[in-house]
Amino acid sequence: MTAADILKIVGTVAVTQVVIDVLANRWVFNTESYDRLCRALLRAQTLEAKARASKATNAEKHAKKLGRHVTEREALAALVAKKHATPAMGGSVAFLILYRILSAEHAGKVVAVLPFVPFRLLRRITLRGLDFGPEGAAAVAGAERACAFAFVYMLAAASAKFIVHKLLARKPPPGADGGFETMMEAPQSKAVMRSFGMDPDEFLKGKEL
Which residue has the higher pLDDT, 171 or 198? Predict the structure, then answer.
């Protein structure tokens, strides 16, 4: 066990997330096309809110007008959500590759020693990739507290990666922050669901529940 191994894993995870967020901000979120899309979404939300608040004498005409605003707002929100989904998917691929590289580098190596003996289910993760021979970990002094790369990587992803992303990532604007659900609300997505015999309204209602 060396502190250098732990620091290297945590540092590599943090730096990788920094690179992902900086590139995403540079090439996606700090662009005129993204700002223009966000402004269009804000206008659509404002028009929809005004339509909902207005008192119409012709109910049918009002319903059609409101429907157009809702459709436009849903389509724009889905486009903004897709802008955020693309870097997220790219980051997932990058971290999968990083995991493979670091896992091969630390294969069979005790990276840390836990200050406690983990329960049996957790030991499947902490001892993953370690081989203590025919006698097993339980027969080797202190081996049950040994920690392999996988568990340290998981902790780094849940701490360093999470904190860096919170500090550097560009958050989607309100109304486009539902992720996959926002993209599924787009008219094109609803049309695809209908083509497969699915009711998009029931599907989205189920997601809310």
Answer: 171
